[in-house]
């Protein structure tokens, strides 16, 4: 099956009971067993089945299997948010005292997570500049448990040289984890570039429509977990072999930390996945059209979009992405005041903080998502007072260009 077909036909057994074409939503906290022996066998892990919805739910499982088959992965674990996905992964791969190699300029929530909760849990970040190879080598020489980066950084817009970072990580025997939120299936193929684990905020492009929050951890199948050196994977590998990461995520971290996703939300993410390949093309085409329009305007200081030939990340993006460059771009005006006036003058684009919505959203990062960041963190992510971030929707690109043009005329005459 090819890409579009897999998106809608990955799930073969949506409803074995009645043949419903989409997975039924199982709203039940617990699952009844006639025979106490049966429940005991499930608890002992001797049979597969459902016990309690924090541990596993048929709708959630259907979505996980469908997504995993869609992207030809080893397996996937769905959780309540993108942040829960990152947190769960950190606790599956490392413990107190572990070092983790982190790229600079990550999503603000990820930076805040490592700066706060994870630092208190004893997990030490070692930062590297994803565009500077010696800095990656230096971070990896410090005995880290894994490498974490974003394929396109949000909102820095940089694209690292993924293949060489993957080679280096694997030489050190550590997995490469990529936050693929900005680069969902259709834009980036993790396996082709040595990515061992893909994490997604489902909230954005996969779910689409800007409805519900959710996260996903995908084991792409490249990494041999029997060779991983840290607990709790080492113990799990003796039981679960190549499925050790999925085993630890499910049986230890997600279940016990309570990161489970609601079956209703899993259902909505499943629906989003079916139309993702069509929607993501329109997001990307619109983003390119609008970024090209802005690049020609005299009023702006700069524009960053990896799909622009003039962008510093263009050549890496061409080697790394599947011919589409994502739905997000940033551009700079001269001051915060100009940014506020510009956002106020737009009629179609909406001042909303998330990304990946069907409609176009714009924010001023310095006063919102980066308001609590240090000067160094802002520099790492390229945040200035004049920067605006645009998440381009699936409207007609002509309407979006008109909206931006009218805003320029209103403010600058
Ligand atoms: C939004 C986002 C997250 C966090 O996802 P939530 O679903 O909001 O928890 C993580 N990484 C990136 C790149 C994001 O854009």
From TrEMBL:
Q: Which residues form the signal peptide?
A: none
Key word Oxidoreductase present in the record?
no
* Necessary cofactors: pyridoxal 5'-phosphate
Query: Organism's domain of life?
Result: Bacteria
Keyword set, alphabetical order = Pyridoxal phosphate, Transferase
Which GO MF terms does the UniProt record name?
A: transferase activity
Pfam families (UniProt xref): Cys_Met_Meta_PP (PF01053)
Q: According to its UniProt record, which protein family does this protein belong to? A: Belongs to the trans-sulfuration enzymes family.
This protein is called PLP-dependent transferase
